[in-house]
Design a protein that fits this description.
Shape: elongated
Distance between the termini: 73 Å
CATH architecture of the largest domain: Up-down Bundle
Largest sheet: 6 strands, antiparallel
C-alpha cells in the first residue's frame, strides 16, 4: 500500500509538471542576451518613463519663464463726462471726452521696461477739438533688480532644475540597468542550481536502484532502501523548489522588460570569470566626475548660489530712472491734429528719479539670510555626498577583489568534493561505506557546486555595483542621455 501511494504521488507530480510544460511551449522561447535585456529595460521600463516626465516639465518651466520677454500689446477706449466751473462767469460747463489708446511694452534683459503708446481723442467743452499723442517711456532700475541676473532669475533656476532632473533620471536609469544585470545573472544562477539539483536527483535515483538490487541479493539490509527512498524524495522536492524559483525569477525579468508573460527566456550570455583590474584613485576620480547624484547636487548648489546673489541685490534701495519723450497735436480738424503729431510740432520730454526703501527692510534682509543658509546647506550636502561616494567606491573595489578570490576558492572546493564523492562511491561499491555516507558526501558536492555558481554571479554583481558607484555603468552599456531626452513628451 505504501508503494502504491508513492507511485500515485509520483504520477500526480509528473502530471502537474507535464501540465506546466505547455505553458512555456505556447510561444517560441526567446534567446535573450545581456545587451538586449538592458536595451529592453531602458526602452520599456515604466518607472523610467514616469521619471522622464520631470525633465519634460522642467523644459516647460523654462519656456514659460522666457515669456517675460514676450511683448505686451494693449488696446483701450474710454468715454468721460464731467462738469467744470468757469471762474470768470461762475457758470457750470459740461465736458465730454472720448479717447482710444493703444501700445506695446517690452522687457529687456537689463530690467529696462520700454513702452510705446499712441493716444487719439475727442474733447467737447466750449470748443470741440481732436487731440493725438505718441509717447515712448523707459523705466530702468538702477540698484534693486538691476541687470540680467536679477531679470532672468526664474529662467536660470528653471534651466538648472532641468539639469538636476536629468541627472536624477540618469541615477534612476543607472539603478535600473544595474537591476537588470543582477536579475539576468540571478536567473542564470537559479538555472544552474536547477541543473545541479536535477543531477543530484538522477544520482539519488541511481543509488536507490542499486540499493534495491543489493537488498534483493542480501548484501544490504532492507533499511537501506528506506534511507535511499527518503533521500530521493528529498532531492525530488528540491528539484520542484528550484523549478519554481526559475519560473518566479523569469516572471520578474518579464515584468521588468515588458515581455510576453507566456514566452520562455533562454539566457544567451554567461557571467564573466575574467579578472577585473581597477585602480582605486582612478575609480574615485571617475566617480567624482560622473556620478549623476553629484551632478544633480551641483545643480542645486548653482540654484542656491544664484538665488543668494539676487537676494543680496534685493536688499538695496529701489532706485528707478524714468524717462519719456513724445509728440502730440491738437486741432479742430482730426487730420490736421494727426499732421501736427507726425511732424512733431509739439514735442515733449521728461526725466526723473524715484527712490524707495522700506524702513527696517526686514523682508529683504531675512530673505537674503535664508538664501545664504540654503547655500551653505547645499554645499554641506554636496560634501557629505562626495564622502559617501568615496566610501562606496572603496567598498565596491574590495568587494570585486574578494568576489574574484571566492571564485578560485569555491572552484577548489568543488574539485575536492567531486573527488571525495568518487572515493565514497568506490567504497560503497565494496561495502566500506553506507548509502547514507554517499548521500552526505553528495550533498556536500551539491553545496560546493552551488557555492561556485553563486561566487561567479556575486563577482559579476560586484562589477555591476562598481560600475554603478563610479557612474560609468551607462557608458559601459552604450547608453547616452541627452538634454533633449524628454522633449518629445512636450509634443
Amino acid at each position: 500500500m505504501k508503494r502504491t501511494a508513492k507511485t500515485t504521488a509520483a504520477v500526480a507530480i509528473c502530471l502537474v509538471l507535464g501540465a506546466a510544460v505547455p505553458a512555456f511551449a505556447q510561444q517560441d522561447p526567446i534567446n535573450l542576451t545581456l545587451k538586449e535585456a538592458i536595451r529592453l529595460g531602458f526602452e520599456r521600463n515604466l518607472d523610467l518613463k514616469v521619471d522622464l516626465y520631470n525633465p519634460a516639465m522642467a523644459e516647460a518651466d523654462i519656456r514659460r519663464s522666457l515669456g517675460i520677454y514676450d511683448p505686451l500689446a494693449f488696446l483701450g477706449a474710454s468715454y468721460n463726462r464731467s462738469n467744470s466751473s468757469n471762474t470768470l462767469t461762475f457758470k457750470s460747463q459740461e465736458i465730454d471726452e472720448a479717447f482710444v489708446n493703444a501700445g506695446v511694452s517690452q522687457l529687456l534683459p537689463t530690467g529696462t521696461l520700454v513702452e510705446v503708446t499712441a493716444d487719439s481723442g475727442w474733447i467737447d467743452n466750449s470748443a470741440k477739438f481732436y487731440t493725438n499723442a505718441l509717447n515712448v517711456s523707459v523705466s530702468q532700475p538702477l540698484l534693486r533688480n538691476f541687470g540680467k541676473e536679477a531679470t532672468e532669475l526664474e529662467i536660470n533656476v528653471s534651466r538648472f532644475s532641468k539639469d538636476e532632473s536629468l541627472e536624477r533620471f540618469r541615477t534612476r536609469l543607472s539603478d535600473t540597468v544595474a537591476q537588470v544585470r543582477n536579475d539576468y545573472f540571478r536567473l542564470y544562477n537559479l538555472r544552474e542550481v536547477l541543473a545541479v539539483r536535477r543531477t543530484s536527483l538522477a544520482l539519488a535515483s541511481r543509488i536507490l536502484d542499486e540499493t534495491k538490487g543489493r537488498v534483493r541479493a542480501g548484501v544490504l539490509p532492507a533499511m537501506e532502501i528506506l534511507n535511499a527512498e527518503f533521500v530521493a524524495a528529498t532531492r525530488e522536492k528540491e528539484v520542484i523548489d528550484a523549478e519554481r524559483g526559475v519560473r518566479d525569477q523569469m516572471d520578474v525579468l518579464r515584468v521588468t522588460l515588458q515581455l510576453d508573460p507566456a514566452v520562455e527566456i533562454v539566457l544567451a550570455d554567461e557571467p564573466s570569470r575574467e579578472s577585473y583590474a581597477v585602480s582605486q584613485d582612478a575609480a574615485l576620480a571617475l566617480a567624482l566626475q560622473n556620478r549623476p547624484e553629484l551632478a544633480a547636487q551641483r545643480s542645486v548648489v548653482k540654484i542656491t548660489d544664484l538665488q543668494q546673489r539676487v537676494a543680496k541685490n534685493r536688499t538695496l534701495p529701489d532706485l528707478l530712472l524714468n524717462a519719456n519723450v513724445g509728440v502730440g497735436g491738437d486741432d479742430r480738424r482730426f487730420m490736421r491734429g494727426l499732421e501736427k503729431t507726425a511732424t512733431a510740432e509739439d514735442p515733449s520730454w521728461g526725466v526723473g528719479l524715484q527712490i524707495s526703501y522700506p524702513l527696517g527692510n526686514r523682508a529683504a534682509e531675512n530673505g537674503y539670510i535664508r538664501s545664504r543658509l540654503a547655500m551653505e546647506q547645499a554645499q554641506t550636502q554636496l560634501q557629505s555626498l562626495e564622502a559617501g561616494i568615496a566610501r562606496d567606491v572603496k567598498a565596491a573595489i574590495r568587494l570585486v577583489e574578494s568576489s574574484y578570490t571566492q571564485i578560485e576558492v569555491t572552484s577548489r572546493g568543488r574539485a575536492y568534493a567531486e573527488e571525495r564523492l568518487r572515493a565514497f562511491e568506490k567504497r560503497h561499491a565494496v561495502g566500506l561505506a553506507t548509502t547514507k555516507d554517499v548521500f552526505d558526501v553528495e550533498e556536500d558536492l551539491v553545496t560546493a557546486k552551488g557555492n561556485q555558481i553563486q561566487a561567479v554571479v556575486d563577482y559579476n554583481n560586484s562589477i555591476t555595483e562598481l560600475w554603478r558607484v563610479t557612474g560609468e555603468i551607462l557608458e559601459r552599456e552604450g547608453i547616452r542621455v541627452s538634454e533633449r531626452q524628454a522633449d518629445p513628451l512636450l509634443r
